[in-house]
Design brief:
Length: about 120
Amino acid sequence: VQLQASGGGLVQSGGSLRLSCLASGSALDLYAIRWFRQAPGKEREGVACISFDHHTEYADSVKGRFIMSRDNARDTVSLQMNSLKPEDTAVYYCNAATKLGPALYDYWGQGTLVTVSS
């Protein structure tokens, strides 16, 4: 699976961005998808995830502001980010993972930069 993240950019505090993660090479419907982010000088952290059956979970820091969705027919996952804060500034990565029997399949996109100015 190849993942391509897009949609990052520069936005003012309080603004919105929509990130997308497009998969190719394999259908996404069997994968749980996660968005991670890594700010300068900090460790990578999980932001949101969505299961194959569209169940979502969010980090406390983004709960109520970010909405994750998936379109399995288009092999696309989105992260709608609202009420952005300067502390949301980071490179955002999408990750697809699934387990088939004993084998774990885990794929990463290249990352897209989100910069929130105060």
